[in-house]
Amino acid sequence: MATHPGGNVGGVSDVTPVEINMGGRAHGRLVLAVLVPSLLGVVALAAFVRGMFSGGRGEWLVGSVVVLALVVVAPRLIYRVTEHFARPRTLVIGPDGVRWNEPRGTSWAVGWDEVAGVAVIGARSGAPVLELVAHKGFRDPSLTGDRYRRPLPDTGFTTTVDLALRRFAGDRYEGLR
Q1: pTM of the model
Q2: pLDDT digits over 46-68, tens only?
Q3: CB-side exposure of 43: number of CA atoms within 13 Å?
Q4: Last residue in a domain, options 58, 83, 108
């Protein structure tokens, strides 16, 4: 277990875990991904109604298919596909270790006493990954060798994860690589 000096830093106790909502940004992207085809569908619907009175049967058929696809099918399909990425997920870094909370998936927790090293790799390349290195004697079926890697959604979380690991991991933290 890592030792931590007592006191307050910025009004937050050193023992208060840092919780990072990893699904928040994806939720906004999901709303945008559903909204854009819906708006295009409304525009197509207006054009279809206008053209329905001046065009022939072929235009009516093509217009109805396009409107149906943009208003009904596309938003539902996009929602289903991106719902997986917008699910609620939380990375918690605290005095006890690192925890991943995923209500509709696989949650896990690793104590600092089980970890020989921790780093954020690929932070500068745009694909950050939290890497935990286990002690020599510690074995877990989910580990590849002695390392466990958890991709982070995007680089927007790198600074927060870096600061939390500096605060709680102590000598185990190898920094951004």
Answers
A1: 0.64
A2: 776 666 666 666 667 777 777 77
A3: 6
A4: 83
